[in-house]
From TrEMBL:
Domain tRNA nucleotidyltransferase/poly(A) polymerase RNA and SrmB- binding: 183-238
Top-level taxon: Bacteria
Domain named Poly A polymerase head: residues: 30-151
Record keywords, A-Z: Magnesium, Metal-binding, Nucleotide-binding, Nucleotidyltransferase, RNA-binding, Transferase, tRNA processing
Keyword Transmembrane on entry: no
Cofactor(s) essential for the protein: Mg(2+)
Family that this chain belongs to: Belongs to the tRNA nucleotidyltransferase/poly(A) polymerase family.
Protein name: CCA tRNA nucleotidyltransferase
Pfam families hit by this protein: PolyA_pol, PolyA_pol_RNAbd
Amino acid sequence: METHNPIISRLNAQQQAALARLWTVLPAMRLVGGVVRDLLAGRPIADIDLATPEPPTQVMERLQAHGIHVVATGLQHGTVTAVLEGIPYEITTLRCDVETDGRHAVVRWTQDWRQDAERRDFTINAMSVDQADELYDYFDGQADLAAGQVRFVGQAATRIEEDALRILRFFRFYGRYGQGEPDQQAMQAIASGAALLDGLSVERIWMELRRILTGPNVAAILHYMDQTGVLARILPEGRALARCLRLLDYGAPANAVLRLVGLSTDAPAVARRLKFSRAEAGQVRAFGQATPMPEPGMADDDLRRLLADEPYDVLEGRVWLHQAEQVRTPDENTAFAQLRQRLQHIAPPIFPVAGRDVVALGGQAGPEIGRVIGLVRQWWLDGGCRAGAEACRMQIKHLLGAKAEQS
């Protein structure tokens, strides 16, 4: 325990009021983990996690007795969720590991705060704060946070053997909080234990990789992941690191799928193996198509035709990937940037007629409608997608009239 500048007061009034109410029920409870880390770092907080020595069933009973809505979100892991004014507060009973296998842990409840902190991954995530605003920092996490060091609690190799996902979490946290060279004990343990990643579920791997690819300092993190053999383990289909680094250097947006397509030599295979969502897999296919491909110097009508068939974000992604295929001169990079600006400022054209227009103008229901609409749409595309509804209807009349004359 140590004295320090106030921490709890950095929360907003609603959060402080909620905690004050929870502390009347669970006076030994503390703020733990990420909320403490981010309050100390002066960063926005996402969630407020709490820990307490009482077993989860007793926590639930106490909260319910005080009229607080509580949900049994993970009793087997010791976690319940108190809901105050619609805001969830996760409360987990102190734990220590009985057995670990690299993916799962068998735990038992404890009343020892240090034991609970010892099972956490990094020193910056192992701090806690009680209701008296006292900081408990058993492993110098505050100093590591200030120095930009991400260190494992205890022996790095042991922490990784307990849960191999901590390898990827190390890189994610280093990207957000690290400065200078990463901790060498951690890097050596990661290089030695990279094969343990093979035992993780593909869903967990993609969850962490997605966060890494959309987080800060991606280029440096990918370098470190490559050096330690981690990229080879999680992307065995093949890697195009240089292309991805150019993608980042040229300023591509923080789109995880786009960056993955840039990083992998066979992104569709990666998407299948890592069980991407249907939407993500669709993005992989769309970004990876070589045609139609916007090119610098294209006429506006050509770009309008592309936008009639593909969303702007898909075409933009293809432009970024095309640009990153090779090292570009400053003039070439400027041309690609101008191309994206032109695409962005062209309103996506919408074909202004449909099958009902063919029927209204005397067309016969059935295959005839599709044939006429297809011909009119091609005529509309050939004209740079500029013709309006009336002009398209006139073209429908022309085609229907020509069909009538032939019959």
